[in-house]
Structures are given as C-alpha cells and as structure tokens.
Amino acid sequence: MPEISTNKRINDFLADEGKLLINNEWRSALSGKTFDTPNPTTGQTLATVADAQAEDVDAAVAAARTAFEGEWSALTPSARAKYLWKIADLIEEHAETLAELDSLDNGKPKLQAQFVDVAVSADVFRYMAGWCTKLEGNTMTVSTPYAPGAMFHSYTLREPLGVVGLIIPWNFPLMMCAWKLAPALACGNTAVLKPAEQTPLSALYLGELLIEAGLPAGVVNILTGQGETAGAPLSAHEDVDKISFTGSTEVGKLILGAARGNLKKVTLELGGKAPNIIFADADVQAAAEGAANAIFFNQGQVCCAGSRLYVEAPIYDQVIETLSTIARSIKVGDGREADTVMGPLVSAEQLARVSGFVEGGLADGATASAGGARIGGGGYFFQPTVLTSTRPDMAVVQEEIFGPVVVANRFENLEEVVAAANDSIYGLSAGVWTKDISRAHRVAKRIQAGTVWINCFNVLDASLPFGGYKQSGWGREFGHEVLNAYTQTKSVVAMI
Ligand code: ADP
C-alpha cells in the first residue's frame, strides 16, 4: 500500500495503534477494544486507536487526582507557566505534522490547519501561560452588623477546581485541545481530555509533545473513545470536579444531567445559528466575501458560522449573486492540495446530515442559488450552498446544519431584522455589515449573542471572551473570564 504522506513521522504515527495516555504511559484500553478513524477524503481507514471504556476513565481520573494532590499543586505559578510556554514552542516546532494530521483526520485544508488551528493553539498556550502568575484575589477590611465594633482582615484566593474533564468536538481537533487544556493547566488543575471519536489523532500527537515538554505524570490524561462509552462516564464521574464541554446543544444537555450526581461544575460551548446582517450602505463586495468566509470556512463546521444571512432589500440581488459566484468558484478537494479552499465534511454521518437538511429545505420550497448537492466519489464532499426563498419556520433556517449551507433572507428595516436575528434558540455569534457606525453599535447591542462582529466575521482571539447566550452555552472561554471557568474563589477572614 502506498504511504499516505511524504512525512515519515506521519506514516509511522498512523501505522502504530493509538493508545490512551494515562499517567504519562501509553496504554491499550483495558478491554482491548479499538476503533478505526477514517480519512474523510477517501472514506478509507486512516488509523486505529484505543476505545476507552468506563474502567479506563477510572484509571485516568485516578492518575489526574494523584497528580493534582501531589507534584502539580506544589509547583509555583511561574513553573507552571514554563510548561505552557514549552508546549507552545513544541506545537510550533511540529506545526506541519500537526496540520497534516488534522487535515487527514478532519478533511480540512492543511494550510488552514497550519495557519489557523496550529497557530491559534500555540498562541492560546502562550496567552494562558501569562495568567499563571496573575491569578490574584482581592483584599478587604470587613465588619458585620452582628459583631459591632469588630474588624476583619479578609482576602480572596483563586484556587483550582481539581480534576477537570475536557470533552471536545471534531471541527478543530487540535485547537479545541488547546482551548481547554491551556486554561485548565494555567489555573492549576489536572485534566482528562476526551477528543472526538471522529478526530482523535492530533490529540494523541499532542500527548507525545506534552511528555516531551516534561509535564509531570497524570497532569494530562488523554482518552480516545466514543461519547456514550467514554464521554458519558467521564461526565458522570464522582471524582471529576468539572466538565468543560464543546459540542452539540443536545449532548450539552446530557452532560448537565450526568453532572448532577456530584454537582460538578460545568461550562458548555454549544451550537449556533448565527445571523449575518448586511445593510444597504455596506461595501457590497467586502460583505459578500465576508458572508462567504463566514459560512464556508472549515466547510461550515463551525459553531459560530454565519449560517443565516440577512440582506437589506436594495442590495439583496447583488449580494446573492456575488456570494453565489464565490460559492461556485470555491475549490473543493483534497485538503492537502495547496489550492484547496474546502475539504470534505468530517464523516459519512455529517454528510448525511447536511444532505438531509438541504434536501428537506429544497422540498419545503427553498431554491439553491449555488450548490445544493453532494460531490460524488469516495469522500464526504458537499458543494458550498446558498439557499434562497426560505421561510422563518423552515428547519434549514431554525436548526444548526453544521455544514457549508447558508440561508439567505431579505429584510426591509432594522426592527424587522433584529427581531428575525433574535428568533433563534441559539445566541453564540452574529455579524453586522454597514458603514453607519452608530447603527452598527445599536444593532450589536440589541443582538442576543456572545460575540458580534462588525464588518468582519470569525475573528477570535485568546484575549476575547467567547461563549453563548441562550442555548449556545454556559460560561466563557478566553480572556480573563475563562479564569472563572477553571478556578473557585475562597474568602479568608481574620479577626484583627
Ligand atoms: P457532533 O454531534 O457534532 O458529533 P457531539 O456533541 O455529539 O458533536 O460531540 C462532541 C463531543 O461530545 C465528542 O467528543 C463526543 O464523543 C462527546 N459526546 C457525545 N455524546 C456524549 C455523551 N452522552 N456524554 C459525554 N460526551 C459525549
């Protein structure tokens, strides 16, 4: 069989069976179970990895607990920071390999993986490294009505939660590891990370880098496995102090239920159906290109994708024509070819889901002004799709498709479009395109979403809080707000 890559490291890595990382040792699942991860470009098996079960979750959590109670908590904050810096350096050193692994496993274009996923991952580790030494509390002198005359010197401590379970999706395999691990470690927690079953490879490769960085045993444990057999026992585990989850709203609700047993803390970054609003005074070319990027980046498999386009009536036809022309010109193909803009969808299930939504929308009366169908062959390719003539009650308008499908709607005025934009159970992100700066801020204030982009889209940074209003989530990733997600506050009160 021909080698899959010209990079020997990748061929060797794929040839070995992927193991679980527990206590800095690579172990098979105790049951011996494995599963295959396919290459979405061909549908062929790419690699075989261990299929963690509840007993492996127990072992990983025990290792994380021992590390938390031992060496890791004894470290100074600046010593913790050095690990995070080192991990960032190693991610950059291995950027090409990590990018190619994510491209192979997820289907995404390799260049995008390198300049977005890998670059952001290193950046997040460095950003969070800075916080290790800045986990400050407050100092107060307090008195209380029921102890007249007494004074108390009080201060707050920000302490880690303990063992955190990190459950991540397949759309940005490496980057999601970084989004969760970097703040968890910066705040002094230990972790059990479960990558998505569709894309386990870059997490395992990252595991090798964590060992190379010298991270003490048990601080990060990595379990490849399925949602129901590995994710669910991790969420329900009595000795896990917190679950940080990114994924579907449906699974987010299951995780809440599972967390009830020991009332572990939960943060959730869930689905979205972002409105992207273009007013008639916008730069039409820039807005149409922005709308294309908002929905087609990463094959539309982005929780904050601009999947509901609202265009003011006078420029509606022009925007749809420009957007559709862009959609038709996008090169969809093998993510490792340099000119590929969109790769395949991640899996056969995802292809069936996206196809099903589009077929349903067309049957309901929508029109495809670009795309609308699968691209034949062995891989899971789908055309960049623009649907027009939609109605607010259609499933394609209400539900998260998580694919390269935008529904376009015409609007007449601001009140109408704000109401339409907010008519969703989701509230993760939104876009506004206009040259009228006051209107831009007025709309930004009225949109129910955790992030609003003005004359841009998909701009995320480690310093900016990111998370959902409504059913798009609980809590925030990034910025100083992420510290709330991975620490708890202790008040200390001393009589003086
Ligand atoms: P998608 O539907 O896009 O695959 P999911 O929300 O199902 O996204 O998956 C996101 C992550 O949640 C994956 O790591 C998956 O294995 C995990 N997961 C799925 N079901 C459960 C569950 N019941 N409990 C915990 N984790 C789960």
Low-pLDDT ranges: none
- Small molecules in complex: adenosine-5'-diphosphate
The strands making up the biggest β-sheet line up spatially as 14-17-18-13-12-20-21
Number of helices: 16
Biggest sheet character: 7 strands, mixed
How far apart are the termini?
Answer: 77 Å
Range of helix content = 40-55%
Shape: globular
Mean pLDDT: 97
Decide which structural class fits the backbone: alpha/beta
Number of strands: 24
β-sheet strand percentage: 15-25%
Radius of gyration: 23 Å
Give an account of the 3D structure.
The protein is α/β, with parallel strands linked by helices and 496 residues long. The chain is built from 16 helices and 24 strands. The strands form seven sheets. It has a seven-stranded mixed β-sheet, sandwiched between helices. Helix 8 crosses helix 9. It starts with 7 loop residues before the first helix and ends with a strand. The mean pLDDT is 97. It binds adenosine-5'-diphosphate (ADP).
Walk me through the topology:
Blueprint: H1 8-15, E1 20-22, E2 25-27, E3 34-38, E4 45-50, H2 54-74, H3 77-93, H4 95-106, H5 110-131, E5 139-142, E6 152-160, E7 163-167, H6 173-186, E8 190-194, H7 201-212, E9 220-222, H8 227-236, E10 242-246, H9 249-259, E11 265-269, E12 275-278, H10 284-296, E13 308-312, H11 313-329, H12 348-363, E14 367-370, E15 374-375, E16 381-382, E17 385-388, H13 395-398, E18 405-411, H14 414-422, E19 426-427, E20 429-433, H15 437-446, E21 451-454, E22 469-470, E23 473-474, H16 482-486, E24 487-495
Parallel strand pairs: 7-8, 7-10, 8-9, 10-11, 12-13, 12-20, 13-18, 17-18, 20-21
Antiparallel strand pairs: 1-2, 3-4, 5-6, 6-24, 11-23, 14-17, 15-16, 19-22
Helix pairs in contact: 2-8, 3-5, 4-5, 4-7, 5-6, 8-9, 10-11
The chain binds adenosine-5'-diphosphate.
Adenosine-5'-diphosphate binds at residues 167-169, 194, 196-197, 226-228, 231-232, 235, 247-248, 251, 254-255.
